[in-house]
Every structure is written in C-alpha cells, then in structure tokens.
Amino acid sequence: MKLLIMGAPGAGKGTQATALAERYGVPAISTGDIFRYNIANKTPLGVKVKAIIDAGEYVPDDVTEEIVAARLAEPDCDAGFLLDGFPRTMHQVHFLDTYLSGRGEQLDAVVSLLVEPEALVQRLLARAEIEGRADDNEDTIRRRMEVYAGQTAPLLFHYENKRLLVEVEGTGTVEEVRQRMFELVDARVEA
Ligand code: AP5
Fold it and tell me: Could you give a single Gene Ontology term from the biological process aspect (predicted)?
C-alpha cells in the first residue's frame, strides 16, 4: 500500500498519519519530522534547513528529494509507505512519479484533509503554547499557509486527475476525522 496524506499546515496530517499507516501496515514518513529531528540534533542537514523552516519557506527540492529517496530505500518500505508532507511541489510530484514508475509501482490513494484556514491558525497557535514549535508563530503560520496555497494546493488537481484523491473533512474530533478517513480510504482501496 502506497499512500500520501496531504493538507494545509495544521490540517492534521501528523495526527492522522500514524493510525492510517498502522491500519495498512506501512511506515509513516514525515519530511517535517525528519527535518525537525535533524535540526534538534544539529546535523549538517539540520543546520542547512533550520532558517528556511523557521521562516515558513520550503526546503529546496533537491535536498528534500534526497532524504526521501534514502528513506524509501530502507527495507521497511518494501511493502509500501505513507508519505506525510511529501510531495509539496510539482518537481517533487515528478520525482515521486518517476521513482514509482521505475519500480513498476503506483500510488493507491492520496488523502487530502480539508480544514478552514482560520481553524488551522487557531490549532497551530494553540500548539505553539504547548510545544513551542519554532514555526508556530502567527507570522510564520500565515507564510506557511501562503506557500501551501501557492505551491502545494495545486498538486491536488494532479492527483484528482489520476483519480487517486480521497478528500476527508478534517473538522471534528480527532477520532471523528479518523473514522471518516478510514471509511473513505478503505472504500477507495477495496474498489
Ligand atoms: P510539516 O511538519 O509537514 O508542517 P506542516 O505542513 O506545516 O504541518 P504541521 O505539522 O504543522 O501540521 P499537520 O497537518 O501535520 O497537523 P498536526 O497533526 O500536527 O513541515 C514543516 C516544514 O518543513 C515546512 O514548513 C517546510 O519548511 C519543511 N518541509 C517539510 N516537508 C517538505 C517538503 N516536502 N518540501 C519542502 N519543505 C518541506 O496537527 C496540528 C495541530 O492541530 C496539533 O496540535 C494537533 O493536536 C491539532 N489537531 C489535529 N487534529 C485536530 C482536530 N481534528 N481537532 C482539533 N485539533 C486537531
């Protein structure tokens, strides 16, 4: 099973990714988590991307694609994966399409979590108070949302045209969203 989970900043990708990955027995791979791990550990990659991420901009495609390629080459991805936060640009879409077609594989479904923009800002401001994530301040949140709208939201048309898109209303409790997502993804992959 090869899945993507997409959505604006704060839509709930990370919250829902683990359960969805467990349901289908595949690893959940979050590019944001990989970058934050490297930043926390002050690795060369972390040093390179920290200011970019703190400003709410996207890490360059070549850097991001290199870490995704390395992660997908690990044995736990042999039976599939759930990518959270990748792809985010058309270049990354082509990278993934090329990677999969080179292996004679294709995606099974692309989950898109839908939440109103103001609700997203409130969620991320609330998280800033609890977790203190460096990019969860109001200016950076709004910049992340602009970058998402300009560069990532259009990618959904690509997956809609490929009949892979599973749109999930992302408002409600975490459990409500999860059940809604499970039902829709189950129906898609069993169809
Ligand atoms: P990333 O970590 O992917 O950040 P993001 O897309 O901004 O998403 P978040 O992690 O903020 O939100 P989420 O949708 O995962 O929601 P969550 O479940 O956490 O990327 C960070 C940065 O890394 C990017 O800005 C970029 O710079 C860089 N990067 C990453 N990938 C890249 C790529 N491919 N190319 C280039 N650069 C890349 O939930 C948010 C909050 O809401 C939490 O507090 C949660 O508890 C709460 N919540 C979740 N669900 C609900 C609910 N149903 N009701 C109420 N609250 C909820």
Answer: AMP salvage
Residue of 48, 50, 133, 180 marked catalytic? 133
pLDDT at 10 over 80: yes
Instruction: Judge whether 124 lies within some domain.
Output: yes
123 close to ligand 1 (CB < 6 Angstrom): yes
The answer to whether position 191 is within a domain reads: no
Specify the residue with its C-alpha closest to ligand 1, atom 53: 174
Determine, yes or no, domain membership for 190: no
Count of structural domains, the chain: 1
In a domain, 151, yes or no: yes
50 lines ligand 1 (CB under 6 A): no
Residue 185 is predicted with a pLDDT of 97
Concerning whether 143 is annotated as a catalytic residue, the answer is no
Report how far residue 168's alpha carbon sits from residue 178's, in angstroms, rounded to the nearest whole number. 9
We report the CATH number of the domain holding residue 90 as 3.40.50.300
Q: Which ligand 1 atom minimizes the distance to the CA of 30?
A: 3
List the domain range (segments joined by +) for residue 87. Answer: 2-185
Average pLDDT value for residue range 99-120? 96
Q: How confident is the model at residue 178 (pLDDT cuts 50, 70, 90)?
A: very high
Bond into 87 cis (ω within 30):
yes
> 171 C-alpha vs ligand 1 centroid, how far in Å?
15
Q: What is the mean pLDDT of residues 136-146?
A: 96
